[in-house]
Design a protein that fits this description.
The protein is of the alpha+beta class. The protein contains two helices and four strands. The chain has a four-stranded antiparallel β-sheet with strand order 1-2-3-4. The N and C termini lie far apart (32 Å).
Length: 94
Amino acid sequence: MTAPTVEAAIHELLELAWNLVYGLLVDRSLLGDGFFVEDFTGIHSWVAGGARYTVIHSRQVAVLFLDTRPVDAIPFHHDLLGADDPATFFNLPD
């Protein structure tokens, strides 16, 4: 993926569900001052068990999407990148 494609994918997914992402960040006390969609710069996506998992992250937070719905948010840390199963860092819905 080229940088403009990554940026477009991040913006599309976040803007599609921004109210839900915002709610997750507020619920987990992860919403800081000056927080913008543009702060998210990384994306990692994979398919498992017929579902698409996508992690979008900024320097401070990571948001997990199940298909196109945000399901959890956590403080970002670099162990998440390159993990065999990044979803294990999050609380997945039953």
